[in-house]
Amino acid sequence: MNISGIVKSSLIDYPGLISCVLFVPGCNYNCFYCHNRSLIDGSHILLTPQSVTDFLQKRAGLLDGVVISGGEPTLQGGLIPFLKRVRDLGYRIKVDTNGSRPDIVAALLESGLCDYVAVDYKAPAEWYPAICGQGADAGQVLKTIQLLSESPLPFEVRTTVIPQLGREELTRMAKEIPASPRYVLNRYRVPDRYLPADESKVLERACSPEELQALADWITPWQPNVTI
Predict the structure, then answer these.
(1) What's the distance, CA 148 to chain centroid?
(2) Which domain, by its residues, includes 42?
(3) Which among 108, 103, 93 has a CA at the least distance from the CA of 19?
(4) Which end of the chain has the least Cβ crowding within 10 Å, N or C?
């Protein structure tokens, strides 16, 4: 299990809990607005396994939870054994995923080692290759969301409202997924690093907080638990 970074304390990444966030490298998507581009392009560092273990042992009892983010955690071959070690230290565990590997999410559900999942739904289904890169398949993400919907495990769906998503697109997205227990619309922020070819998309005007709230209100008939 490779770890490339740690946020040592967070009040916002695990709903209701004080957590740390561990970032894994590597992703099978290449979203133009990614805020962790170093985890995609290979310019990341790798922390030593012992340093991660030492940190988690020292914070046990002080932090409530550990969030595994990325990058894409479900690409990590050692994910489930790592979660077992984290659980043995007494932490609750949240996994952030792009939803592209429903088979791994199913294994997580069966393992009982995950307490909360956040899955990104990034765009209308037919837009996935354009937004996330060639080969991105919204069908796999929809399978993941359906799996979670049929499970007792708490979860949320998240969408970053990039400039290209307006009322029509968000309405389609809200209809494409089951009504979720928590559907989070995140405000778009321009990433610090992006590909030169994506500059026009990255710098396009995004909605204001007021406009974001209006979009949230608009999709409540299909996603009654939407929040921003």
Answers:
(1) 14
(2) 5-227
(3) 93
(4) C
Per-residue tens of pLDDT for the chain, all 228 residues: 999 999 999 999 999 999 999 999 999 999 999 999 888 877 788 999 999 999 999 999 999 999 999 999 999 999 999 999 999 999 999 999 999 999 999 999 999 999 999 999 999 999 999 999 989 999 999 999 999 999 999 999 999 999 999 999 999 999 999 999 999 999 999 999 999 999 999 999 999 999 999 999 999 999 999 999
| Phi, psi (degrees; rounded to nearest 5) at 159 | -135, 125
Total tally of structural domains belonging to the chain: 1
At 227, phi and psi to the nearest 5? Answer: -145, 160
pTM for the full predicted model: 0.95
CATH of the domain at 20: 3.20.20.70
List beta partners, residue 119. Answer: 97, 157
With CA atoms as reference, report the closest residue to 158 among 189, 120, 188: 120
The burial of 180, by beta-carbon neighbours within 10 Å (0-12 exposed, 13-18 middle, 19 or more buried), is given as: buried
Within the chain, how many helices (H) and strands (E) appear? 9, 8
